[in-house]
Design goal:
five-stranded antiparallel β-sheet; about 30% helix; six-stranded parallel β-sheet; 11 strands; alpha/beta
Length: about 200
């Protein structure tokens, strides 16, 4: 897929590296050139300096052929404007936006924006972890997917992440081992007591 990411903070840089490692064509935009240092030396995508709602810059980024745009800057207003430009002007098929203010999350969904509210998501995960000992969080009230915390048992130890994804028909996006979080590598072998964070259909 050809994917444009707007915002190279912690989320944007991790997303860019993860998608790039899977073989997708990635262009990442940020108004601060120093932000690209987060990508590391192994990132093989394209970086562009500027605002994610600049139409000329987006054309330079190849938005007219983009399969998806992820808007993950640290400003809600910037994210919403950039999203509208990608959707309304360039008609990108898939545009996902990060929203910080939980009060705006419902409003933006009512406007037809595909938003992920990190504040709400993390709060719900922590609440479920405290009250239930694990979490299974639906991304939104109308979403067909959930984020699930999945603990590896002895029978699955020794399998690769690729094998588990194929068996469970789910997408693994992180591994928790000994209280540390590791990004996904397809040939990574799981150990007993590992915890996988998985996106799966309801």
């Amino acid at each position: 897929m050809y994917i444009i990411i707007i915002g190279c903070g912690r989320v944007g840089s991790q997303l860019a590296n993860s998608l790039s490692m899977e073989g997708h064509n990635i262009v990442i935009i940020d108004k601060n050139e120093r932000s690209f240092k987060r990508l590391g030396a192994n990132f093989n995508g394209t970086t562009l300096v500027g605002n994610g709602y600049d139409e000329e810059l987006l054309r330079e980024a190849g938005i007219e052929k983009a399969d998806a745009v992820a808007v993950v800057t640290n400003g809600d207003n910037t994210n919403v404007v950039s999203t509208q430009v990608a959707r309304k002007i360039f008609h990108v098929p898939t545009v996902v936006t990060r929203i910080y203010d939980p009060k705006r999350e419902y409003l933006y969904r009512e406007l037809g924006l595909d938003v992920i509210g990190g504040t709400t998501l993390i709060a719900e995960m922590i609440k479920e972890k405290i009250t239930k000992g694990h979490f299974t969080h639906q991304l939104s009230k109308v979403s067909e997917v959930k984020i699930i915390e999945f603990k590896i048992d002895k029978n699955m130890a020794g399998l690769t992440l690729t094998e588990i994804e194929s068996e469970k028909q789910a997408k693994i996006f992180a591994v928790i081992r000994d209280k540390e979080i590791f990004s996904v590598q397809k040939d990574m072998i799981v150990k007993g007591e590992d915890i996988l964070l998985i996106i799966t259909k309801k």
